[in-house]
Request: fold
Amino acid sequence: MHSKKPFYILVALLFIAGIAASVYRGIEHNVPFLPGEQVQSWAVDAKVSFQGTGEPAEVTFSLPNDPAFEILAENATSPGYGMSVTQTDSGRQVTWSTREAIGQQDLYYKVTLVPTGKNEIPAEQAPETPQAYNWSATEKAAAEQVMSEIWSRSATNLSFAQQLNKSFNATERSQNLELLLTSNSRPDLFIRMLNSKGIPAKKVSGLFLEDQRRRQQLSNYVEVYHQGQWIIFNPNDGTQGRPDNLLIWDRTAKSTLDVVGGVNSQVNFSMLQDTRSALATSIDMLKNKDALDFSLYQLPLEEQSLFKGILLIPIGVLMVVFLRVIIGIKTSGTFMPVLIALAFIQTTLLTGLIGFLLIVAFGLMIRSYLSDLNLLLISRISAVIIVVIGIIGLFTLLSYKFGLSEGLTITFFPMIILAWTIERMSILWEEEGAKEVMVQGGGSLFVATLAYLAMSATWVQHWVFNFLGIHLVILATVLLMGQYTGYKLLELRRFRPLAGE
Reply:
């Protein structure tokens, strides 16, 4: 007797691989697990303005660099300017250039952003220990006294930054701190004191995202390095952490906007919140990353539409196996109900049932006449196929004449399968009688209806197309049911008399 251990190992591997692939696609590629999910996106417009002096002009503008937001689409409008986007060690930037800029100049950068949920800012590598700030003679003693006092109340670099940030916004500040704040901005003084203690910190620019806001400016924040992460502080109000809807725009610790050949430069931001399909957003993000090697979305639309129908067949097959092997329902043909269910998806259930019954009924009547002619099997089947085509054509014309648009979809029925169904039912009628025809025909329609309900469910169609790993789970389930050799549920009726004793 062969061991079934390899079989169960195979089934377990299929289950694990299918579930793991589906979960990975949902988490890593942000594909929604349920259809119809929506995500919020932000459309941000940056307007760069300056006065041209009549000389060649070159404008360098830093682009958003925040792991909490994914860039879905971006473009720049710059009539009369050359434009290039470059990637530097500190981030991306766009450069506009022209041979002559006279008068008011307006350049636009537009970006669509989608939140990723990754609010932490990991450091790619540990930064170098910064050099201590060279304080002026009038500030040195005051700065050292302030840092010494706060250092004694801290235990780690992070707690030192927290206590320092708190002291900047205390109700009663020391005279030394007041002196330092008169000649230094809060973010600059915060960074200088941290660097003087060997703590990496840098200034970053952030933008508050508020729906339908215009002419917004960047705000200054400070990132402090601690245990592989950059922690955001706001010395202006004493808060720590990322505020809601904050977009970190520039993390270069340099000027966000540099203009050569112009004066009075400034940048203003406008923003608009929008709601879009989570699935469409995920597909666009994957296209931007060129990560569609194993996705059906890289196929042309015609082939995608074809596969959306083909990938529903395993669901119908699963229903047929369960209803025949476990429940014990008899059908006319093994997988004929699956093909009928596919036709129901095109015709709708009620129209499909009526059309199927009419075609089979008329086909059986004509088939009974053909049986009297004693034709060969091939000729008889061929004649039935031609008759089925004629019946479908007749019903379609009648539906069109009477304005019944639903009847036009009857052409989606598989004609060859219908012909074989009529042939099988006719032979079954002659051999087993009308009762068996009703049992198998009714069972076929019942299984086809349940398969249609499963295959037409929106979430099922979403899963089988977007999570291909689910087909491995279906395969494993079919293999398991294929090992079942017990009583079918409908066979238990034979033991009803025993239960009454």
Summary: The chain has a mean pLDDT of 83. The chain has 16 helices and 15 strands.
